[in-house]
Amino acid sequence: MTLPSSTQVLIVGAGPNGLACAITLLTLGIKPIVVDDRSERPYGAKGCLIHARTLEVLKTVGLSDSLKDIGIQSKGIIFYGKANPLFNVDIAALSSLTEFPYILLTPQSEAELIFEKFLVERGVEMIKNTKVIGFVENPAEGLHVSFEDGSSIIASYVVGADGARSTVRSLAGISFKDPFTNLMYDENPSSASFMLFTLADVFLNLNPSIHIPRETISWHLNGRIMFCPLELPEKLRHLCKENTSFWRIAIAIPPGSRSIPPRHPDQAYLQNEINERNPWKEPIHLDHLYTAATYRVRSAVAETFFKTVGNGKVLLVGDSAHVHSPSGGQGMNLGICDAVTLGRAIAEHIESGNDAVLSDYSSKRKATAIQVIQATKHMTAIINISNGWRRRIANILMYVASWLTPIRRRVAQRLAGLTYRD
């Protein structure tokens, strides 16, 4: 598809957040242009949890039913010490509060395919291999956006959905830092200064004596390892052998560890980590590694999610606006909720011309992002406690808290995103 000379709304980034914003606009009668600097959609070990609040929001744009068919409806998350359960975050117990009392487990790439299909069927295509490199303020209309291939477009609204290293955010001159430490996102880049998470999608062959439930996510705190069951995508069925099943595993590496995992760990590395961390005496065999990546745990939020640049409006969603620990799987969820809210705000602004609509989007979504960052910091701190007497005390406190219904329910509501309803 060739870029037109102008558009009302330009969305930069065709991940779940950019696509969700485009879908929302389309349902409101506004056809955006979506560009992405990639040539194809990578599978990657990215988000895989879609929470109740996100499904509620996606229902309003007609997507929740399509998503339910591509994933596992998990009852929640169980935290263990070794193999002993400590705290059950029981999402299934929230059936009186939401239509979606579960965590939908599906790779982010599968959700993106559903979103993209929705748009393509309605005439919105993704323009790929199109990298934004500059803004020029246009005195007559909108914002002149230039691309690496020499093309350009004039847009009234530019939505930055282009990730943590957002070009849109950078070009708009919006700062990006931790709201609690004031550390800029790119400061102190040494891996030794950060907690690391290795995420991998793998095929496991489990000894019959080992039971890892496929109806819940299992976090083993003493070993700092998580097992999350995933529905097997059709394109991977040829890799699945008899007696194997498909999983997302997460391995947490605390700051200052002597051993720093590779950026893209291989099967031998992951097998060794599973051997050392799993709480059972019997081994877990990693039959096949599909994809793996290691991420530094950093938190940051944009100074503002809305800025007027010349005669154009620059708006941020998802990782362009906020990043945080993957603990609790909140990243994709927070971004999708941003995106649907922003789509409605843009439509309202087109109708009214009142900048207060966009400022309200920015202030409310930033406040929610800071709450999520704080919650994920707390969860990461719990995972990060070293084995020894501190770990034992923390485990005891979690076990005691599990008997207190109000605490269990509050934790479940927060994880499900129900506390962030407008």
UniProtKB/TrEMBL annotation:
UniProt xrefs under InterPro entries: FAD-bd, FAD/NAD-bd_sf, RIFMO-like
Gene3D superfamilies the UniProt entry points to: FAD/NAD(P)-binding domain (3.50.50.60)
Keywords: FAD, Flavoprotein, Oxidoreductase
GO terms assigned for molecular function: FAD binding; oxidoreductase activity, acting on paired donors, with incorporation or reduction of molecular oxygen, NAD(P)H as one donor, and incorporation of one atom of oxygen
Naturally occurring in which organism (per UniProt): Lentinula guzmanii
Pfam families the UniProt entry points to: FAD_binding_3
Every FAD-binding domain range: 7-375
Cofactor: FAD
Identification of the protein by name: FAD-binding domain-containing protein
Superkingdom classification of source: Eukaryota
PANTHER family assigned to the protein according to its UniProt record, in alphabetical order: BINDING MONOOXYGENASE, PUTATIVE (JCVI)-RELATED, TRK SYSTEM POTASSIUM UPTAKE PROTEIN
